[in-house]
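Hi all, posting the design record for the shared folder.

TITLE: backbone redesign
STEP: 1 of 1
STRUCTURE INPUT:
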């Protein structure tokens, strides 16, 4: 995860120097719509995508390990379980970013919504769908009290 964050920070710097929007570039990378810019930036993008694959692969393996699951639940102040299935169900109830799960950090739903506004913190949907165990963490995080048609004012 540290390597991923390192690549992200370098990409931010290089894009800033070229006056290219980091947010737009990350959104394109997340959607698999990235078009090559130059060799340095392209290499960083490849490294970021590779690191994401490694994080997904590691998490997929860890989510099949009861001991790791119970360790996560323990760190999140949740009861541990005797079976992998029940431990996964308990972990699914927790609102958590896939990157935070990798580092075993718990967040609230409000923090998660705020965090997912940053494109580098969004785990790409097509990557998550490749790993069966990660699919269970794909949830809608939109605020159900907000109505899109009324300029984001809460419904009453």
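Okay, here is what came back for every position:
SEQUENCE:
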């Amino acid at each position: 995860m540290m390597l991923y964050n390192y690549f992200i920070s370098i990409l931010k710097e290089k894009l800033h120097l070229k006056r290219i929007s980091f947010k737009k570039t990350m959104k394109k990378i997340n959607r698999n719509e990235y078009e090559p810019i130059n060799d340095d930036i392209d290499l960083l993008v490849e490294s970021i995508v590779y690191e994401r694959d490694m994080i997904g692969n590691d998490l997929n393996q860890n989510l099949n390990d009861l001991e790791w699951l119970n360790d996560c639940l323990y760190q999140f102040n949740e009861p541990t379980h005797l079976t992998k299935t029940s431990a996964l169900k308990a972990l699914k109830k927790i609102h958590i970013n896939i990157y935070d799960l990798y580092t075993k950090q718990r967040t609230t739903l409000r923090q998660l919504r705020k965090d997912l506004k940053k494109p580098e913190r969004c785990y790409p949907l097509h990557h998550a769908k490749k790993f069966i165990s990660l699919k269970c963490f794909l949830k809608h995080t939109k605020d159900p009290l907000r109505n899109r048609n009324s300029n984001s004012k809460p419904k009453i």
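COMMENT: The radius of gyration is 17 Å.
Let me know if anyone wants the other runs.
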